[in-house]
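Sharing in case it's useful to others searching the archive later.

Someone asked me privately for the predicted structure of Transmembrane protein 11, so I'm posting the question and my answer publicly. Question first, with the sequence:
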Amino acid sequence: MDAGGDRLHPSNVVVIREVYDSEYSHHGFSMELEKALDARCSVIVIEPTQLGDETARWISFGNCLHKTAVISGLTSIVTGFVWPDNVIPQGSSCAVSLFSTALYTASWQFDPCVKYQVERNPRKLARLPILGALTTASPVVLVRKDDTRRKILHCTVSLTAVAFCIYQLYRSVK
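And my answer, the predicted structure tokens:
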């Protein structure tokens, strides 16, 4: 699943099965997911629809925060160059970037889901060794990814936007 095309060993793949054996099954599914996330499995296949949808939405929310931080930070920097004397648009974009980065850092940095992305590519999904044994037609497949570059990117862009905005404010007051 990674860029190197390494084959996945079946022990790195966890399937959270949709087996209802009690009225508290959803809680049991959540506990299985937590265990798989904590075990840092390469691939997690979630069969229960509700849990899969919730997890996919949570990961999408984190992705949205990350993209918002990067895009608004870059917008702030570009705006500072295009309109160097008008700090309002630059400051607004900078504030959005800083807020998104802070929210991402506070709510996502220590969440084990941050290391996973929802895999939707049918060619990559076809390489999963467990795919034939699934009991549902539309499972949510999470793939573990290194997020170090992502964190460095949005923090660097946000901090650069803040520094440039402060510089522009200082220059305009002077």
